[in-house]
Design a protein that fits this description.
eight-stranded mixed beta sheet, alpha/beta, 339 residues, 13 helices
């Protein structure tokens, strides 16, 4: 029955759902002393589906997606990851590095404390770029909370140049202070205001799209607004340090290996824009060859942001995959994953 509802989902307009960057009902939630912004839309009884934004974006970037997914019967949530959007933007702390492990734990705490997954069905996580890596991390950390993961696409420098299993001891000692020093010397407090308040922002953002974004003022505004906050530079410095110093176990290749051997097989969709200039489609093809159990889909005439550039194709692909994946999870034997 659920699959049928997805396939014949009404349009967002016919369901009376609000679209645009200011979609849904927002709120704040405090976790580990940090304020986290979130929003929700759709039927209260629907299966929870959490949208996770990419680098430099926020829940606003799901402006074309939340209402159609809610119209398909999901209770749609979105969370501003720590350091982004309207959530707090903390500085670097060695005891709490700002990386995908922290964001994965943030998502899982959100599922438990706000979405109340323990009392409901496990949630679907749909992430764009960095949000896709975060969704994968959350599923590895707490597979009991996550029913399925869609990453559009899955980025990580380690997918191009994997980290060695063991580094020389001298390099391990020097690496952290060198990375921290380099990032502290970078004048982000001067660079970010210039980028966010000039045409440089649009030029950089254009690289993520195949179509022209020259007249898309809403898009430019929703990306610029978090970058103009006083705390934006320190947060960017913190996440640059955190992501650079991650252990191998927190990289995408290692996370995929961990997901593949979990007792509870979590369905995974990798979705790529054909003309993605930031994370080329060939990376997705290579990942599918390495991990035949995951599913790979491509959105034609799209760059790095298929959810925003080709939302209709994005929804059709994700909903069809969810119909298959959630039905498989609900069968007595469950999904079977090959070695």
């Amino acid at each position: 029955m659920e699959a049928t509802i997805h396939q014949i989902a009404p349009t967002a307009a016919s369901a009376g759902l609000k679209t645009g960057a200011d979609w849904g009902d927002g709120g704040d939630w405090h976790w580990q002393g940090l304020r986290c912004h979130w929003r929700a839309l759709g039927p209260e009884q629907g299966r929870p589906l959490v949208l996770l934004h990419g680098f430099g974006a926020s829940s606003d970037h799901w402006r074309h997606n939340a209402a159609p997914l809610a119209a398909a019967g999901f209770r749609v949530y979105s969370l501003d990851l720590i350091g982004f959007g309207r959530s707090d933007q903390p500085g670097h702390r060695r005891q709490r590095p700002l990386d995908n492990r922290l964001w994965g734990r943030q998502v899982n705490a959100f599922l438990e404390q706000v979405v109340d997954v323990p009392a409901r069905e496990p949630a679907v996580l749909v992430g764009h770029s960095l949000g896709g890596l975060t969704a994968l991390t959350a599923a590895v950390l707490r597979p009991d909370l996550v029913a399925a993961v869609a990453a559009a696409p899955l980025p990580d420098p380690a997918l191009i140049q994997p980290l060695p299993l063991r580094r020389p001891r001298r390099w391990r000692r020097l690496r952290r202070p060198l990375v921290v020093l380099a990032m502290r010397l970078l004048p982000l407090e001067l660079l970010l205001p210039v980028i966010s308040r000039t045409g440089l922002l649009r030029l950089g953002l254009q690289g993520a799209y195949r179509r022209s974004i020259r007249h898309d003022r809403e898009l430019q505004h929703l990306i610029a607004r978090p970058a103009r906050r006083r705390s934006a530079a320190r947060a960017l410095r913190a996440m640059s340090i955190g992501m650079a110093l991650r252990p191998r176990g927190a990289t995408a290749p290692a996370l995929l290996e961990q997901l593949a051997v979990q007792d509870q097989a979590t369905p995974l969709l990798l979705l790529w824009g054909r003309q993605d200039r930031f994370v080329p489609y060939m990376i997705g093809e290579r990942l599918q060859r390495q991990h035949p159990w995951l599913e790979l889909a491509v959105v034609e005439e799209s760059g790095h942001c298929p959810h925003d550039e080709r939302p209709e194709a994005f929804h059709a692909t994700v909903l069809a995959w969810l119909d298959r994946s959630l039905d498989a999870i609900n069968t007595p034997m469950g999904p079977v994953r090959g070695a």
